[in-house]
Specification:
The structure holds two protein chains of two kinds. By secondary structure, chain A is an alpha/beta fold. Chain A contains twelve helices and 19 strands. In chain A, helix 1 packs parallel to helix 9 and helix 1 (14-25) packs across helix 12 (422-436). Chain B has a six-stranded mixed β-sheet, sandwiched between helices. Classes of the chains: A alpha/beta, B alpha/beta.
Chain lengths: 451, 258
């Protein structure tokens, strides 16, 4: 390995693969390595054998009759794609979308007073929805109409509220929305994980509500889309983009050390006794001492910023109350179950080529608040009915201790507890800025059209 | 053989290329799709996939041809690559014995990873480097070869592989036709020796694949059908279980037919 690269990328998670795809298109010489023999890192989708191997160290038990190994692509993180969000834009702009097929997630549900209800996706559903009383519906309608008509440049549409300054609480108060409706709007639409947003300026929340409603309007049913064969297809697709533009891929490579010179500046990585040199390195926290006491160099490069609990559950029926949906999201707002953070449930099934016929995969997740995290997800597990098998993991979330520009070492963040990929794209923009010293501008790839 | 547009709808099939680096995978596709050849192609860059139509008597097969993009080099091809491939062309270099062994490993990999009905063709490329070739490409040899020579005449780069017709290059052959053919038969593969450089057997190869693909197994694919019916830019609400189309005009295309 005598070649020298511009950038070495460690870990083939989605964040890293988007970055190496964009860097390769930009003309950088990229070497992309992963310690696993599969793509995706923490955002991989595993077949049954890999799943049981990872969590149990055993093959899948015959007795459960789960069907063919190859029919499974079980996601390790529960996320959907907002159909009008930033990841969609990135997929289209890079033309990576051609490698993928998507389906609309069948429904989005919210838990209230002990039962789940569909988040209305049409006017008709809104009228019939049990989520609000008649008068509250009218008030909510005024609120949504306000959002629809709001124009930055036209103060007449602001109705006396400066949403850049006033809090979301002020907005709720103006429209007289009840606490339950606030929960619904803040958690099921703006997709905040806790209530901190209420006292902050309203603008980000309103932007998120608009993103949600635009995504909902794009395909109906729900604001989310999901790739056939699982989320693990996303990193693979961006890796292919990178490879097509000259990126070199090596899987199944243990990284023995990340090397620096006397000033602490990155020089290369050593793998299998061989050292490869490069100007810069990008990688996920697991390659930079995450979970270990001290990295060999002695420098602490990543810190834990929280923990997430995720329970992957195999079901042989759709989640009760979801209208037999092949896929759904269920949000349990924190107030409903006396927590600080929401509990999320995401379910997909054989309709997405991620499980055998008549098998559903549901993932219950939340941010850990206590010393007994398994008890924290019970309200979610109770909604699932009979669970055939369950894999629980408690994952620390890491963030880099520095931007890395002085050392040319650029570390990405762990995948957070949000239900979509918007923060992943923010992360891509942020790392690009750190690596390149300039803002990322998405250029559309040249596409030849049929004559 | 252009003109006469039959009102038959083209069936789109995914075809993947496999084989050791530098056996000429991309060159075969370039010959097939553009009837072109470059002496010194660098490892594949910039093309996501190419498409080319193949007209048969009763149907049109539109190949969507996926190149490895170099990901075969360190055995890091993603499962996505094999996904839904209806055909695979596994290429070796008849002047490199080791490349046939690699090809056999790829065939195994396909049998493990890919769709069980996949049509696999084993192709010994670089037939132009040996003169004893068994493949006396009977059909339309003249047309194909003259085209190729026309291309070559432009810049003659310093290449040891130049004179294909010159006499005693026979000893370059390291894989006998019989050996590869026997293996192909045992493993139920289509088999061709071809030359991307001269064009020998290239269109024959793809035509044979097109004939062999069991269309019945492709036609009633519910997801695909629904996506097609939903149409491009189907922004409105779609029925249950249908796929969505994100970008518009998202497919790279190269015209022509074989």
């Amino acid at each position: 390995m005598d070649e020298e690269y511009d950038v070495i990328v460690l870990g083939t998670g989605l964040t890293e693969c988007i970055l190496s795809g964009l860097l390769s298109v930009d003309g950088q010489k990229v070497l992309h390595m992963d310690r696993n023999d599969y793509y995706g890192g923490d955002s991989a989708s595993l077949n049954l054998t890999q799943l049981y191997q990872k969590f149990r160290g055993t093959p899948p038990p015959e007795s459960l009759q789960l069907g063919r190994d190859r029919d499974y692509a079980v996601d390790l993180i529960p996320k959907f794609i907002l159909s009008s969000g930033e990841l969609t834009r990135m997929l289209v702009h890079t033309d990576v979308v051609r490698y993928l097929e998507f389906k609309v997630v069948a429904g989005s549900y919210v838990y209230r007073d002990g039962r789940i209800s569909k988040v209305p996706s049409t006017e008709m559903e809104a009228v019939r929805s049990p989520l609000m009383g008649l008068f509250e519906k009218r008030r909510a309608r005024n609120f949504f109409q306000y959002l629809q008509n709001w124009k930055e440049a036209d103060p007449a549409t602001h109705q006396g509220l400066d949403i850049n300054k006033c809090s979301m609480k002020d907005v709720y108060t103006k429209f007289g929305l009840e606490a339950g409706t606030q929960d619904f709007i803040g958690h099921a639409m703006a997709l905040w994980l806790d209530d901190d947003y209420i006292t902050k300026p309203a603008r980000p929340t309103i932007d998120r509500i608009i993103l949600y409603t635009q995504s909902m309007a794009r395909y109906g049913k729900s604001p989310y889309i999901y790739p056939l064969y699982g989320l693990g297809e996303l990193p693979q697709a961006f890796a292919r983009l990178s490879a097509i533009y000259g990126g070199t891929y090596m899987l199944d490579k243990q990284i023995e050390s990340v090397n620096v010179d006397e000033n602490g500046v990155f020089t290369g990585v050593t793998s299998g006794g061989e050292t490869v040199r490069a100007k810069k390195v990008i990688g996920d926290p697991s390659y930079f001492g995450a979970g270990k006491d001290l990295e060999s160099g002695g420098k602490v490069r990543v810190i834990e910023i929280g923990k997430v609990i995720r329970a992957i559950c195999i079901l042989k029926h759709p989640i009760p109350g979801t209208d037999d949906s092949d896929s759904a999201q269920i949000i349990i707002p924190q107030n409903q179950v006396g927590r600080r953070n929401d509990i999320y449930i995401a379910t997909v099934s054989s309709a997405h080529n991620v499980a055998a016929q008549n098998v559903w995969i549901a993932m219950v997740s939340t941010i850990v608040e206590t010393s007994v995290p398994e008890r924290e997800i019970l309200p979610g597990l109770q909604l699932l009915g009979n669970v055939v098998d369950k894999f629980v993991s408690i994952t620390p979330l890491y963030a880099p201790t520095s931007p890395g520009t002085d050392e040319n070492i650029f570390i990405t963040k762990s995948y957070d507890a949000t239900s979509h990929f918007e923060t992943v794209v923010e992360e891509v923009f942020d790392v690009w800025q750190r690596v390149k010293g300039e803002k990322l501008v998405l250029k559309k790839r040249e596409v030849e059209l049929e004559a | 053989m252009a003109s006469e547009e039959a009102p038959v709808k083209a069936v789109q099939v995914k075809l993947v290329l496999l084989g050791e680096a530098a056996v000429g995978k991309s060159s075969l596709v370039l010959r097939f799709c553009s009837n072109d050849f470059n002496e010194n192609t660098s490892p594949t860059i910039g093309a996501a996939f190419l498409t080319q139509k193949c007209r048969l008597e009763n149907r049109i097969v539109k190949f969507e041809i996926w190149d490895t993009a170099g990901q075969e080099r360190f055995h890091s091809l993603a499962p996505m690559y094999y996904r839904n491939a209806a055909a695979a062309v596994v290429v070796y270099d008849i002047t490199k014995a080791a490349s046939l062994e690699k090809a056999k490993a790829w065939v195994k990999e396909l049998q493990r990873q890919a769709n069980p009905n996949i049509v696999i063709a084993l192709v010994g490329n670089k037939l132009d480097l040996v003169s004893d070739g068994p493949a006396k490409s009977v059909d339309e040899p003249a047309e194909a070869t003259t085209d190729a020579e026309g291309d070559d005449s432009t810049p003659p780069p310093p290449s040891t592989t130049a004179q294909p017709s010159s006499s005693d290059s026979d000893d370059l052959r390291q894989v006998s036709t019989a050996e590869a053919e026997t293996y192909a038969k045992e493993s139920s593969l289509l088999f061709f020796e071809a030359s991307a450089k001269t064009g020998a057997n290239v269109s024959e190869l793809f035509t044979e694949i097109a004939k062999t693909i069991p269309m019945e197994s492709l036609a009633p694919k519910p997801a695909q059908g629904a996506a097609a019916a939903g149409g491009r830019g189907g922004r409105q609400e779609q029925g249950r279980g249908e796929n969505v189309q994100l970008g518009e005009g998202q497919q790279a295309k190269k015209g022509g037919c074989c």
